[in-house]
């Protein structure tokens, strides 16, 4: 089945799940490198001078909720895939959303990693992997594959893809700064989404090539 994937898909499959596996083992064994990695990023220090910044960042963070990401994913599937009779791509997108979120939920229940102390926003029970970042990654995949190629100019496609990557980075840094998740939780979400993107293709016929 893996032979149906191209070289990039294979790298994404084994690289994404491999990185996720290493992170899980590091949490279970409380590895020193993971501790230093998570503490190498700036968390909220508690200064009253940053209260206005915290409020602004919290508002931005609200737009990264899984429900909002799911809403836009559904819109893409309906208007850019199903209505254009791209049924194989529609099935793949639905499989990615369902199986990806199921895997994310199971991992959270398996690892049961608590959130960083002093989270400044409402958080779920566990932080590994970050559901919000995983949902954003799925949305980015759909925009990247099915919306961006519709733009005629190369500059437009490059600009939009750059903005998508920038969006992920900004949201990730905001969540870290607000003590909502650990940096390794972000990395785990990205790794899981990359691995699931390729894994879900195993259950379908070879996908069509997307032209830039």
Could you estimate the helical fraction of the residues in percent?
Answer: 55-70%
**What is the count of structural domains?**
1
**Helix and strand sequence:** HHHHHHHH
- Beta content comes to under 5%
Q: Which stretches are low in confidence, meaning pLDDT under 50 for 5 or more residues running?
A: 45-49, 205-212
- Report how far the terminal alpha carbons are from each other: 26 Å
Tally the helices: what do you get? 8
Q: What's the number of extended β-strand segments?
A: 0
What kind of sheet is the major sheet?
A: none
- Shape category: globular
Instruction: Compute the CA-based radius of gyration.
Output: 18 Å
- Name the structural class: mainly alpha
Mean of residue pLDDT values? 84
Transmembrane segments: 12-35, 63-83, 90-108, 128-148, 160-180
GO molecular function: phosphatidylglycerophosphatase activity
InterPro entries: PAP2/HPO_sf
EC number: 3.1.3.-, 3.1.3.27
